[in-house]
Specification:
single chain; 280 residues; alpha+beta; 6-stranded antiparallel β-sheet; 40% helix; HTH_AraC; transcription regulation; DNA-binding transcription factor activity; Helix-turn-helix transcriptional regulator
């Protein structure tokens, strides 16, 4: 079986991470054992804010789905009523959440396509949605992960999630293995800027990659490639990129500054220059 243990997703994408870290505790934990074939990592958010204080969390979209249990005084409005354990699919716009009160989120971040590979479902069913985990995953597992006593012990919750998901092992899946190879290439090779380049490298047609990505990820390969390069841009800016915006555009595959600015504004709501200067 091809190696599925290497990184197939980036931890980039949190906008102004230093500001968020002042108010919200974010932790990531590695997975262990066989479940790593489908799961990238565990993550958790915890916060306690004074009354009236609101912190806006803004995250660039990733080509991944998450399984979460979310408890708090102010549930996000996207959650299905009465459900604390949910699956959130790829969010094609920027993922914005207003954080207030107190809350705890424990999450499993799937590899791109991992949830579809585990369940045999097409990922289009949860793109831009948070849906009840019940119906996608076994009821017994969902009930276990919803138990407040277990949620209070994050390490035990992670172990239960890993055991339950590993039990769904569907066996060999060459198409999923191909998807992970392509995604890893997109993520690691910053010179890849067109789907045609990716298709040639992997000996497949663009149409084949489109079908593959739509089934497993829920969005097309172009969307994934552009998002990864935008993550590169934002990370470079956050790390103090000192060159011109034209240089930044060319480094990550945009034709010129104007094209980068158009895409940047569409996703982040501000220009690269203003984001760099931390102006609203």
């Amino acid at each position: 079986m091809p190696d599925r243990t290497n990184a197939t997703a980036t931890t980039a994408g949190v906008l102004r991470p230093e500001e968020l870290a002042r108010h919200v505790e974010l932790a990531r934990e590695p997975v262990s054992g066989r479940v790593g074939a489908w799961v990238e990592n565990h993550w958790a958010l915890r916060w306690v804010l004074p009354e009236g204080r609101v912190v806006r969390s803004e995250v660039l979209p990733h080509p991944t789905a998450s399984l979460t249990v979310e408890l708090g005084t102010h549930p996000r409005p996207e959650l299905p009523p009465g459900e604390s354990v949910v699956v959130t699919g790829v969010c094609t716009p920027r993922f914005d959440v207003e954080v207030r009160g107190r809350g705890l989120v424990l999450g499993v971040r799937f590899r791109p396509g991992g949830l579809a590979a585990l369940t045999g479902r097409t990922a289009s069913g949860w793109v831009d949605r948070s849906v009840p985990a019940r119906g996608l995953l076994p009821d017994r597992l969902v009930e276990q992960l919803a138990d407040p006593g277990l949620v209070a012990e994050p390490a035990a919750w992670r172990a239960a999630a890993e055991t339950g998901l590993t039990a769904l092992d569907p066996g060999e899946d060459p198409r999923y293995d191909l998807l992970l190879r392509v995604v890893r290439d997109m993520l690691e090779d910053h010179t890849l800027v067109t789907v045609a380049e990716v298709a040639r490298r992997h000996g497949r047609s663009v149409r084949t990659l489109q079908r593959l990505f739509l089934h497993y990820v829920g969005v097309g390969p172009k969307w994934v490639l552009v998002r990864y390069r935008m993550h590169d841009v934002v990370t470079a800016v956050d790390e103090g990129f000192a060159g011109s915006l034209t240089e930044l555009a060319h480094r990550f595959g945009w034709y010129d500054q104007a094209h980068l600015t158009r895409d940047f504004v569409a996703l982040l709501g501000t220009t690269p220059g203003r984001y760099r200067d931390r102006r609203p």
